[in-house]
Amino acid sequence: MMTIKIAIAGSSGRMGRMLIEAVQAADDVILSVALDRAGSEAVGQDACAHIGKNCGVLITDQLSALQNADILIDFTRPEGTLEHLIVCQQYGVKMIIGTTGFDEAGRAALEAASQKIAIVSAYNMSIGVNLVFKLLEIAAGALSHGYDAEIVEMHHKHKVDAPSGTAIAMGQAIAKAWDQSLNEIAVWSREGITGPREDGKIGFATLRGGDVIGDHTVVFAGEGERIEITHKASNRTIYAQGSLRAARFLQHKATGLYDMQEVLGLK
Ligand SMILES: NC(=O)C1=CN([C@@H]2O[C@H](COP(=O)(O)OP(=O)(O)OC[C@H]3O[C@@H](n4cnc5c(N)ncnc54)[C@H](OP(=O)(O)O)[C@@H]3O)[C@@H](O)[C@H]2O)C=CC1
Ligand SMILES: O=C(O)C1=N[C@H](C(=O)O)C[C@H](O)C1
């Protein structure tokens, strides 16, 4: 069994810490690089300090350290991920990207880079949410007439993007089943005298507060009944474990852009 050398970006972030812990606990991966951005107080500290361990990998802001990794796992911000993407192409380092909030140009950059390196990019790395995407395909296919789709998500108060990447991906799954483009039929928020709801639209509602890790509900509301499909995360370890599955999957890929459905064999 080959040990995969893992680099982690945003090492002192909520997901970065969780990923370091997961890498430490697994026996087929090893932490070789821990990155944080220049100016972060974490730079120079041992990457495992938050779990009361000394793993001998110091957090660095030097992206050239990436040449010591096989795969970078990146849960940061779009601008950070896009910077890392350039360096990963330079050194032939594969990427697992959990960062949300990319615009069209950002997504195009990932697509272009995937001709040089293998990338898994997914707005949600958990098995549960990826299974929900499948359920949504079935539900939306069966409920394409006479049902209104609404997506409600709630996250912790530190989250900076809205709606969540997962909510957008859920909308995309429904729109695809309806043979539509999400941008054409999404109602991203509502306020004031909105008029009656139009048929065929997908509505989004965003809640932020406290320490909620990630709740998503899709409602299909019809005359006389309502179907609700909900996923609630209670621990970030689901995203870290999904990322490690993606790392094992990427071991056998040289180039290409993949999602978690492909990693989990759900496509
Ligand atoms: N796909 C999935 O399954 C999941 C995706 N996410 C996504 O992951 C991302 C991170 O979430 P979370 O860990 O909660 O966020 P945090 O804010 O806790 O952590 C972000 C980390 O990235 C660093 N960072 C911020 N900007 C940059 C930059 N420009 N360059 C390099 N590093 C940077 C931060 O450093 P500093 O503190 O110095 O700013 C911090 O260490 C979000 O986009 C979130 O939506 C989250 C959970 C699951
Ligand atoms: O920022 C978060 O925390 C999360 N972000 C992802 C998203 O935007 O969908 C995934 C998960 O919901 C947690």
Bound compounds: NADPH dihydro-nicotinamide-adenine-dinucleotide phosphate, the ligand O=C(O)C1=N[C@H](C(=O)O)C[C@H](O)C1
Give the beta-strand count: 12
- Report the principal-axis shape: elongated
Structural class: alpha/beta
- Helices and strands, in order, run as EHEEEHEHEHEHHEEEEHEH
What's the pLDDT, averaged over the residues? 98
Arrangement of strands in the largest sheet: 3-2-1-4-5-6-12
| Alpha carbon gyration radius | 19 Å
Put simply, the count of helices is 8
Beta-strand residue percentage: 15-25%
Low-confidence stretches: none
Q: Please give the largest β-sheet.
A: 7 strands, parallel
Give the proportion of residues in helices.
25-40%
Distance between the first and last residues' Cα: 27 Å
Subcellular location: Cytoplasm
GO molecular function: 4-hydroxy-tetrahydrodipicolinate reductase
Keywords: Amino-acid biosynthesis, Cytoplasm, Diaminopimelate biosynthesis, Lysine biosynthesis, NAD, NADP, Oxidoreductase
Organism: Deefgea salmonis
